[in-house]
Each structure stands twice: as structure tokens, then as C-alpha cells.
Design a protein that fits this description.
The complex is a heterodimer of chains A (340) and B (156). Chain A starts with 5 loop residues before the first helix and ends with a helix. Chain A is mainly alpha-helical. Helix content of chain B is 92%, strand content 0%. In chain B, helix 1 packs antiparallel against helix 2. Classes of the chains: A mainly alpha (340), B mainly alpha (156). The interface between A and B is large, with 50 and 32 residues.
Chain lengths: 340, 156
Amino acid sequence: MAGENPASTTEYIQHHLQNLVYGLHPENGWSLAHSAEEAAEMGFWAVHVDSMAWSIGLGLLFCWIFRSAATRATTGVPRGLLNFVELVVEFIDSSVKDSFHGNNKMIAPLALTIFVWIFLMNFMDLLPVDLIPSLLSLAGVNYQKVVPSTDPNITMGMALAVFVLMLYYSIKIKGSGFVAELTMHPFNHWAFIPINLFMETVGLLAKPFSLGLRLFGNMYAGEMIFILIAMMFAAGAGTGLVAGGLNAQLFGEYTNGWFWLIIFTLVVGVCWLNLKGRVSTIKTVLLCMIFMALGGGVFALGGGLMQWGWAVFHILVITLQAFIFMVLTVVYLSMAHEEH
Amino acid sequence: MNINLTLFGQMVTFAFFVWFCMKYVWPVIIEAMDERQQKIADGLDAAERAMRDLESAQSQASDQMQVAKQEAAGIIDQANKRAGQIVEEAKQQAIAEGDRLKVAAAAEIDQELNRAREELRGAVAGLALAGAERVLEASVDDAANRALVEQLAAQL
């Protein structure tokens, strides 16, 4: 958490945008990077441990949920989890049937994996930005980016995998027709072959890049706004009890991570009690405001409301981005299957 | 933007998850859903068929009921007629029997009457004679008197 001076604000942002990197350092060999400079020196031979871990973990979560639903699949009355999973499957199935007209058993499972996996990765964005990094920093992990889809490696990795599939099916289905498509289109004359080739290649390459960068850009921007709003918590510190909150009185400039966690737990707990009907809504709002004012002052209260507002809006964004990635993948693969 | 090995790690992971989904998740769920859809469609079909069967059975039953009602009415009619007939016959028989009995009784009464008359006549004649004998104490011409007395008795 940072105070008000610009240097530490920049540091805060940069810290949040730095992956936990494991790679081949020119001097230290294969090791975890201890700073952003070390990570940069590693160059290509490095792995973003946090991105990979979260992405694999969320992928496994997807597999586990859907597999456990699949083992429970009956032809009788579906219940609970199975109901939900079938809802998703049916949604994907109808989307795929709408835009893919070929006969390929891989497209629908591919679309399901993309949609659910990307949704889960994007969903990490809705967790409070500082929660997991602060907890892990208590455990001694310096850097942590919890949203895998804000890492271009992750989004481009998926987009390139889709690109490979596009090329594979184009060649498999169309054969020489694919070459003809690249060379004799849009101007059907031999003299235009170089121009055609250039234009079609650019068009072809634009697909995976737009696919991967769109998701990356959206999620990166969303994450950035969360980080910027989060700084408002810190901006309130050090200006008195009402404005600055209890944390500034207790810890001065250096706010303890545990303090945030306690306030967060209190607020969530009150909201939970409200959901259970034990506390009236007016009391809930008042208590939340008091906790937030104590925790971070007026700025923090404003920040909290903005976090909440942006998170609500972001629910739409993360779902939409997952859906767009899925639909475009299906459309691109559908184009790869169609003869012109 | 620092592209590194993570890119390929993600590609491999992606391929693995797609393979897993294609192998163990998608077909199972889709199959179960299709089967259920089939089952529901069959169930709806069966329900419709049963409904139609029920309707036809109901109309058949009401038809049969109609026929049975008519038959029953016919039978009751016939029975009524027959009952009337029987009563009529019995009446006739009773009247005939009564008449016969009346005639027989009348005849018997006549017979009895006649016999009684005869007896009375005999007795009167005897009594008269005895009375006359007593009166006269004499032996009169029996024959002439008898004729007289009988003449008298015949007037009874």
C-alpha cells in the first residue's frame, strides 16, 4: 500500500503489474526473479509462474466441476450442479449450432472449454485487487498477478492455439483450395498473386492477434481501473480519523495488510448476515459505511463504492469477453471449414 | 508486453483441457441431455395417445350405455305388458271358477231342498195318518183315507 507521493503510487501500480517470473537469468541461472529488472533480463526463457498456476488451477476447476456433473448425468430429473452445467452446455451448444455448420466433434467442447475457462480467469478480476497479493506477500511471495487473462502470454497462447487449429482445418478440408484462397482472392488473375497473397496473409494473421489482444486489452484495462480505484484507499491515509480512518491512526503511513483483511471480513460478514435476514438492510448499509470509514476514511468509502460499481459493470465485461472469444473462435473455425 | 515461454505453456495447457473436455465432459452430458429429450418427447407422445384412448373409450362407453338403456326400457315395457296379461288371465279364471262354484252350490242346495221336502212330505203323511188313527180310533177304510191324505200332503 502506498502513501500519497507519486513515486510510491507508481511503484504500487508497477508492483501490481509485475508477474512472478521463474526463468533462466544470465547470471543466476534458473531461478525466481527477485525484481522487475531481473525478470526483464530473463527474456524469452522464463515462465510467469502466477499466470500459469492460476490458469491451470482454474482449468482444473473447470474440468472438476464439469466432470463431476458429467459423472452424475442422468436421463432422469437433473438437480443442482447438473442443472447449472446443462444450462451452460445447452447455451454453448446452441451458439455453436448457430455459427458452425460443418461436421466436427471438436468444436463444441472447444467452445465450452474456452467460454468457461476464460470466464473463470476473467472472474479473478472481481476479487479485491490487493487481497491475494497481500496474503501471499505475508507468505513471502513478492509478486502476484491473479488474473491470468491480463497476461498477453495467456491470451495470445490461446489465440495461437486457435490459429493452429484454423490452419490445420483449412489445409485438411480445403487442401489446395486453401492456397487458391490465399493467392487468387480477391483479384482472380495470376498477375495479382503477390498482392492477393499479401492481403490475405495479413487478413489471416489479424484473426489470432485481434482475438488474443482484444481479451488482453479489455482485461488489462479493467484490472488497471481496479488498481487505480484501490489507490484511493491509500490516498485517504494520514489525514485524520474521519478522513483518514483508523488505519492511519494505528499504523501511520504503513498500513498492515491484516487490517484490510479484518475490515473486508467485517463488511462481507455484515452483508452475509443481511442475506440471512438477521440484520436489516438499512443497518447493513450503515454498518458497512462505518466499517469502511474506520478502515479507510472518506476516500476509502468512495473507493469502496467505486470498486463495487466497477465490479458490477465488470461482471458484464468478463462474461462478454469470454463469450466473444468463444464465438469468434467458432466463426474462424467455421470459415476454415467452408469452401469458397 | 513480454512474451516468453508462458505462451507455449498456455498452448499446451489449453490443448490438454480441450482434449479432456472433448473426451470426458461434452459427450457424456450431451448424450444424457439428448436421451432425456427423447424420453420427454416419448412421454408426451404417450400422454397424448392415452388422452385420445380415454376419449374414445368414454364415447364408446356412453354409446353402450345408451344401447343398454334402450334395451332395459324395452324389457321393462314387455314385463309390464306381460304382468297385465297375467293379472287379466287370473281375473278371468277366478271369475269362471267363482261361477262354477256358485252353480255347483246352487245345485246342491236344490238337491238338499228337494230331499228335505221329500222327507218332510213322508213325515207329514205318517204324522197325519197316525193323527187320524188316533182321532178315529176306528179302523176306517185305510185305502180311501190314504188317498185323501196323500192328496193333502201333495198340497204341501
